Each structure stands twice: as C-alpha cells, then as structure tokens.
Amino acid sequence: MAIRPILHYPDPRLRTKAAPVADVGPEIRELIEDLAETMYAAPGVGLAAPQVDVPLRVFVVDIAAADEPSSLHVFVNPEIVRREGTLSWQEGCLSFPTVAEEIERAAAVTVRARDADGQPFELQADGLLAVAIQHEHDHLDGVLMVDHIGPLKRRIVHRKMMKRQRGGS
Ligand code: GNR
Ligand code: NI
Questions:
Q1: Domain range list for the chain
Q2: Which residues are CB-neighbours of 110 under 8 A, at least 6 positions away?
Q3: CA–CA dist 58, 21 (Å, integer)
Q4: Is CATH 3.40.50.970 what the domain over 12-165 is classified as, yes or no?
Q5: Cβ atoms 64, 70 nearer than 8 A
Q6: Mind listing the pLDDT tens digit for each residue in 44-92?
Q7: CA-nearest residue, atom 6 of ligand 1
Q8: Is 136 tagged catalytic?
C-alpha cells in the first residue's frame, strides 16, 4: 500500500474524462488500496482515481466520523441511475486545499457500480454520502467543484489556487 500524491487545481489532468475499468484485477485492487490509504491520510471523505493521476472510473468514499468504525465504499465503473430532490452542502475537495463552497446537488441518489471483487451492487444514499458520491462521480468526468458555483466565486477560487501554486504549497 502507498500514499499517492494528490493533483491540485488547475492541473489539466483533473479535467480528463476517465475510462471504464475493463477487469477488476490485482492492479485495480492495488489502486483501490492506495486510494483508501491516501484518503484516510489526507484525511478526506472520498477520493477519485483521477485525483492521483489514474484516468480510470474508480473512487472510494468513507463518511464515518472519527469516533465511528470506518466504512469504506468502493465504486468501480459507477453509474448514478437515479437522482431525487436537491440539497445544498458546504463541500471541500482535496484538489482545492483550503477551499470550501456551498454546492447544490441531488438530495438522494441511487448508484450502480462494481466493488473491489468486481461484483455488481446498487446503493441508495442521501445526506453526506449522496453528496460525496456525486462529488467523486464528477471527478471521473473531469468536473470539479468550481463548475458548480457562480462566475464570481469561481474567479475568486481560481485566483486563490493560482496564488497558492505560485507559493509552491
Ligand atoms: O474530503 C472531502 N470532503 C468533502 C466534503 C463535502 C463534500 C465532498 C467532499 S469530498 C472531499 C474529498 C475529495 O476531494 N474527493 O474528491
Ligand atoms: Ni474532490
């Protein structure tokens, strides 16, 4: 297992549309382990493969609080098949350190995916789990937090990230 470096906005690799996984084999299982280890170390509630420079349709999510047992969800080739209602949540992103923005999403989703054993499953989620699934699913299509906020806020976030990049952090 290894912690992999996380790409930061405006790295163009975050804009790549990720390709489906053909087969959940040893390489994909290693990627899943590394995604989980990197997410827990950050710490974050989710992490998508494109954020660690792997353009494949894989992400992990764990929304358990610090005092709860961990509950890792693995999604390979996920499809959001149902979206219901709307909710607004203050989101962060490991590719936008120090940024937090209120973003509107579906309040509940149904997602179909394969797990780390390649087995298909379907999951219904609401609250933070639904938010995290939509946030991670966006990363697979090169869609980022800033694409969901207004032009003024987007400009502020863009400038902040450019300044941060110049500072080398
Ligand atoms: O750690 C994260 N926290 C978070 C909080 C609210 C909504 C979404 C997220 S996902 C983010 C980790 C990340 O960047 N995943 O891509
Ligand atoms: Ni993110």
A1: 12-165
A2: 80, 81, 82, 122, 123, 124, 125
A3: 8
A4: no
A5: yes
A6: 999 999 999 999 999 999 999 989 999 999 999 999 999 999 999 999 9
A7: 91
A8: yes
Please write the tens of the pLDDT for every residue from 4-33: 999 999 999 999 999 999 999 999 999 999
Residues with C-beta less than 6 Å from any ligand 1 atom = 44-48, 51, 89, 91-95, 131-132, 135-136, 139
Tens-place pLDDT, residues 109-164? 999 999 999 999 999 999 999 999 999 999 999 999 999 999 999 999 999 999 99
Residue 21 · residue 56 · CB < 8 Å: yes
Q: Measured between alpha carbons, how far is 23 from 117 in angstroms, rounded to an integer?
A: 10
CA–CA separation, 108 and 126 (whole Å): 4
The protein residue whose alpha carbon is closest to atom 1 in ligand 1 is 44
Q: Which two structure tokens, joined as six digits, stand for 156?
A: 């502020």
Whole-prediction pTM? 0.97
